[in-house]
Every structure is written in structure tokens, then in C-alpha cells.
Amino acid sequence: MPVQLDIDELVGRARDGVPRAIARLLSLVEDAHPRLPEVAAKLTPHTGNARVVGLTGPPGVGKSTSTSALLTALRAKGLRVGVLAIDPSSPFSGGALLGDRIRMTEHATDPGVFIRSMATRGHLGGLSWATPQAVRVLDAAGFDVVLIETVGVGQSEVDVVKLADTTVVLLAPGMGDGIQAAKAGVLEIADVFVVNKADREGADATVHDLKQMISLVRREIRGPSWRQPIVRTVASRGEGVEDVVQALDEHHDWLVRREELPRRRAARARDEVEAIAVQRLRAELVDLRSGDRLAELAELVVARKLDPFAAAEELIADLRGS
Amino acid sequence: MPVQLDIDELVGRARDGVPRAIARLLSLVEDAHPRLPEVAAKLTPHTGNARVVGLTGPPGVGKSTSTSALLTALRAKGLRVGVLAIDPSSPFSGGALLGDRIRMTEHATDPGVFIRSMATRGHLGGLSWATPQAVRVLDAAGFDVVLIETVGVGQSEVDVVKLADTTVVLLAPGMGDGIQAAKAGVLEIADVFVVNKADREGADATVHDLKQMISLVRREIRGPSWRQPIVRTVASRGEGVEDVVQALDEHHDWLVRREELPRRRAARARDEVEAIAVQRLRAELVDLRSGDRLAELAELVVARKLDPFAAAEELIADLRGS
Q: Which residues form the AAA+ ATPase domain (chains A, B) (predicted)?
């Protein structure tokens, strides 16, 4: 017999800050539990208070260490912090990797900190679908700051900028030349740049390159009046982390002052509603005649008897007829 | 007055291998031109002959150089090769970067080679939507091999494995420790591993780590009887590239022998049809009442008067009613 799921009680306990209840709700999100809509409905009235900070950057820049150092700094200010470590890169293996688990232990005994690794594998719609739900859980659970950490190459960092009020892009010296950095595509999405491992050779060059790149990137993307700061850190020793916190505060003030915060949040809600609706329709398409219809049309495409657009047309016609 | 677009003539000239016609068709794909379905219908009967090879790996492993070396080796065998360099990482800047353009010049005068950089920015559905269309163009234009090169961290390499008959994952020494490599999520998708820059310190360690990781990864993903080979190259000097070509041939033989090729292509067609249909439905959702409906619902979510699932429900109801 499945365990009875008392959503009301679970939400209530999560709002009281009970870690196991929060974890349980996040598992419902990860599993795309059928009662998730009910959960979202119960959580929504209690949301909107958390500052959502995205933290991204290419592998090897020290994201885990930086998150940990940032956590320490935010905790010192008395803020409760929830962390979502999103791993969009491993769709098959299912589960966060060792690195994420290791650093959890550092804050394991702190009740003002909640860290969760989420693999977005398998999820149709991936990050864009599951992460806002997870943020909603932590927001409703009363965390002052929700940090979303994700590997920042590819689509993931574009998704993270959509989710966050403020996006921090981490870089490190010796990550490759300027072109490679630009390829990583992280320049345009940053509200705050952090050059970590700033005690290493090449840090000055990285900051210099970054300044040049920033000047090349269309400013309007970040809003006309915000100048992306570049903060140097040595996260492993906690150096410069205070400056990161200050940059975050300044950006938040700017968001509020420019009425950019409600704009970003409306855009986020728009994406989320769209993602959920698309997800629903996609599921219906795939389910048509228990999935046979799509497979059938695919065979016709492989046999070159139908082009994929015509096949898609037929699929949609079937959906409307169903 | 817009230039008259003669699809029949364009397809005919592309099939004759006229580079400008091929380029034009690819631009139609990139622009998501309204007459794309017509183009696909005309191209489809002439497709199915090209071997589609995906090439992915984290930034800095020498993907551009490897692609170029591979091109040279395949050309030496008399094969015509089309290259799609996909840059999913830069959604805003619009356009491929310098590195891609530089290496094009090397093969610029060879009529048996066609190279195109595509930014998948902006495209809803990104890679999964546009790339199969671009592959179809090159396939119909008679290229024996279509190489899809993409930055391999995040969702992009998952998409590339779906598109390719054979996926090559490039790594290089000193890309970070084993955990980082695993995070890059490239281990599970490789049919062939290439350790490039194999003359550098740490190459043996990388190969060793890779072997260990391979043994940890669930084998069945790649098919029970295929053992992922690890090829060492120094692409900048062309070393080992013949071995890569041989590994590609062996994998292709295996695909054919095991009847895995039609299976992969059916899966690919299925994804493509699904992506096109989802794209269509998404466009309809977003367009409801000129986009006002989604914006309206998003505002209600931000105001916490509606949760996003309920909002999505209403959006879909509107779609059905429209």
C-alpha cells in the first residue's frame, strides 16, 4: 500500500522549516509527482520573499567551493539560505555526483542551510520545468536566499538566468583564451562576474579580457544602467566573498529601484506557465494511442514516405481529434 | 518586394552541390522560414544516405582542430563531408564566433567540403528543432558524411547523440579531475572516445580515468556489444586521426550489423516529429490573444493569485477553445 500523502501537513511542516518535509517536497518535484499541481497551489501563497541568485560558470572554476563560501558569508549576516545544485549535464546516470555530496557535509549541521542536488535528467523540459518548482518549495519554506548553482555551458546557464533575480558568473584564470570564454556564452547573462582563484597566475589577464568582452556585449540585455561588477575571490580561503555579497546586495537594490524585479519575476512566471503547458501538451502528443501514433509516423519519415513537418501536422490533428 | 523563392529550383541546385544553394537552404532553417515544411517535403525523398557523426566535448579540448583534421582524413578517402558547427551556448550574440570562421578558410577551396556554423540561439526548441533540418539539407545535397560539432556540456551533447549515428566525445589531458569529467556528462553518450592533445602531460592518466569511468557507466545505453574505443590524437599535427576514422567505420559496421542504425534513425525521426509538433503547439500557446493571455496569467502567478499549474491549465483550455 502506498504511503498516504498529506500535502497540507507536508507543506505546513516545510513552512516550519523541517528539513525532511522540505526534502520530501523536493523529491515530489524531482519525480514529477502527479500531485505536484496541488503542492504548487498550496505553496504559492507563501512565496515571493526569497531572493533567487543563480551561480554558473564552466566546469573547474570552483563553483562548489564558491557556493560554500557564499553560504558562510550569507549565514554570517543571519540569512537562511537554500541551495539547489542543478546538474543538467548527466541525463542518464540519475543523481548528483560525489562533489556535491562532499561539500554538503560542511553545512550539514546548520539548520539555516538547506542544500539539495538535483539532476534534471529525464525531465522533459529539464531545468525550465523542475527548477522553478524547487525554488517555490524553498521560497515557501522561508529561506531568505535561494542559490541555484549550475554548470554553465550550454542551455543550462540560459535557463538559470531566467530563473534568478541575480545571476553570478564564475570564471577562473587559465580557462582558455578569450574566444573560448565567449563560446561558453556566459558573458551576456551575468549580473555579477566573479573571477575565482584570483591568486593564480593569469588572474589579471582574465579580468582584463573580461572587461574587454563586457564592453563588446550589448549592454541593454542587462538593463541600461547596471554595470556588471567583476569581483576577485579565492573562495577556498573565503577571500573576496564579502565583496560578492555586497555586489549581490547592490544588484538587488538596483533591481528594486529600477522596478526590474517584478519585470524579471513576471518573465519567469511566464516561462514557467508556458513550460508546464508545453510539457502537458507534449505528454499528450507522445501518449496518443499509447505512443504508437508517434512511432508510426516516425517510421514513415525514416522510410521517406512523409516529411517530419507533415508528420507533425498529422500528430497535432490527432491530438485535436482526441 | 521580397525575392521570389523558388523552392524547387533551390533544392535542385543544392542537390547538384551548388554551395550557395546549400547555404541558402540552411539559412531558411536558421531563420525558421515559413516555407520550411515545403523544403523538408522536397528534400526528404533524397535523404538517408549520409552518415551522421556527432562530435562533442568540453570547451578547450580542440574540437575545431579535430573537426578540421577529421575532414582532411575523410577527404583523403574521397568522401564528401558537410560540417555543422552548432553553437548552442550563445543565445544572445547571434552568430558563430571567430574560431569557427578561422578554420573554415582551411577547407574553403575544397568543393567536397561544406562548413556551416549555426547558432541555435533564439530558436525555441533549439538544437533539437533546427539541427535535423540542417542535416536533412546536407544529406539531400549528397554529402557522404555529415559532421555535427557542438560544445559538449549541458543539454547540447544529449541532443547531439540523438541526432548522430555515431557520437565522438573529445577529451584532453588536464581538463580537471574525474568527477568534473563525469559532470560534463559526456561519458554515457560516446560511441567513440578521442583523447586529443595526447602528447601532453597527463594523457595516460586521462585515458586511465576514462577506462575506469567507462566500466562504471551502464553499458546497455550504448548497446550491449559495443565497446567504446579510446583513440589518442594530436589533431593539430594530424596524429591518430586515421585511427578515429577507423573507429568511426567500425562503429558504423556495428550499427549496420546489429540493425541498430534503423533503430537510431527511427528514434531520431520520432524526436524530430515530436519537436516540430511541440514547437507548433508552443507557438499557438504563446500567440493566444497576441500573447496577452500568457502575460495575464503570469501576472496572476506573480501576484500569487494563481499557481503556475492552474495557469497552464487555463492556457491549454484556451488553446482548445480557440
A: 49-193
Cα gap B57→A58, rounded to integer Å: 13
Cα(A152)–Cα(A158) distance, integer angstroms: 8
Give the span between the Cα atoms of B124 and A284, in whole angstroms: 19
* A118 Cβ neighbours under 8 A, 6+ residues apart: A26, A29, A30, A84, A85, A86, A87, A96, A130, A131, A134
User: Model confidence over A38-75: pLDDT tens digits?
Assistant: 999 999 999 999 999 999 887 778 888 899 899 999 99
Calculate the alpha carbon distances from B119 to A24, A188, B29, B94 in Å: 39, 15, 11, 6
What's the pLDDT tens digit per position in B181-232?
444 456 678 899 999 999 999 899 889 888 877 777 655 455 567 888 999 9
B254 CB contacts (<8 Å, ≥6 apart)? Answer: B223, B225, B226, B260
Strand order, beta sheet including A113-119? A113-119, A81-87, A145-151, A51-57, A166-171, A192-195, A230-232
Q: How far apart are CA A151 and CA A157, in angstroms?
A: 7
Here the cell at position A286 is 507522445
* CB distance A82 to A47 below 8 Å: no
Q: How far apart (Å, rounded) are the C-alpha atoms in residues B54 and A19?
A: 43
- Domain annotation for chain B: domains and CATH numbers: 48-258 (3.40.50.300), 274-321 (no CATH)
Q: Do A281 and B155 touch (CB under 8 A)?
A: no
Gap between the Cα atoms of A56 and A287, Å rounded: 35
Residue type, B174: G
Any CB–CB contact under 8 A between A209 and chain B?
A: no
Cα(A245)–Cα(B199) distance, rounded to whole angstroms? 43
In which residue are the cell numbers 569557427 written? B100
Task: Classify residue A288 by its DSSP letter.
Answer: G
Q: ipTM exceeding 0.95?
A: no
Of B281, B298, B299, which has the smallest distance from its Cβ to A281's Cβ? B281
DSSP for A38-93, written as a single string: HHHHHHGGG-S-SEEEEEEE-TTS-HHHHHHHHHHHHHHTT--EEEEEEETT-TTT
Q: Which of B179, B218, B274 has its CB closest to that of A98? A: B179
B87 touches chain A (CB under 8 A): yes
**How many Å separate Cα B183 from the centre of its chain?**
20
